[in-house]
Amino acid sequence: MMNATLFSINPNFDEVIIGALYLLISMPIIPLYILLLYVFSTDKELLPNTQYRILKQISFLDFGQLLFHVLTGIFILFPEVQTKADGFVRVSKYVSILFLSE
Q1: In terms of residue numbers, what domain contains 75?
Q2: Residue 79 forms part of a structural domain
Q3: Which DSSP state fits 10?
Q4: 59: exposed, middle or buried (C-beta count within 10 Å: 0-12, 13-18, 19+)?
Q5: Which end of the chain is more exposed for a tag (fewer CB within 10 A), N or C?
């Protein structure tokens, strides 16, 4: 890529569609997850129940995985981010694969 800036769009149209889908599917869910996690963490009736504690832990991990989906969409849309921040990209991929896969 000649004269590529950090946020220049990927020249491959198929990858642009994939990256946009990652972002369009995962971004609207983030506010809903924040609300869900807030309810799980503050509702006094749900806290003593073991099933809801397990569900809260799964929801926190799922929210982390959702954030990594957003990062993946950004990495696919803007390939220069991968080359400039290679260490961050690799660490985020390994964390996503090792700790957040269900």
Answers
A1: 13-100
A2: yes
A3: P
A4: middle
A5: C
* pLDDT 10s digits, 14-66: 989 999 999 999 999 999 999 999 998 898 888 888 898 899 999 998 898 89
CB 7, CB 1: distance < 8 Å: no
- Look at residue 2 and tell me if it is in a domain: no
Rounded Cα distance, 15 and 23, in Å: 12
**Three-class SS string for the chain?**
CCCCCCCCCCCCHHHHHHHHHHHHHHCCHHHHHHHHHHHHHHCCCCCCCHHHHHHHHHHHHHHHHHHHHHHHHHHHHCHHHHHHCHHHHHHHHHHHHHHHCC
In a domain, 17, yes or no: yes
Could you give the number of structural domains in the chain? 1
Residue 96: inside a domain:
yes
Question: 74 is written with which tokens?
Answer: 């950004």
Q: Which amino acid appears at position 51 of this protein?
A: Q
Give 9's DSSP letter. Answer: P
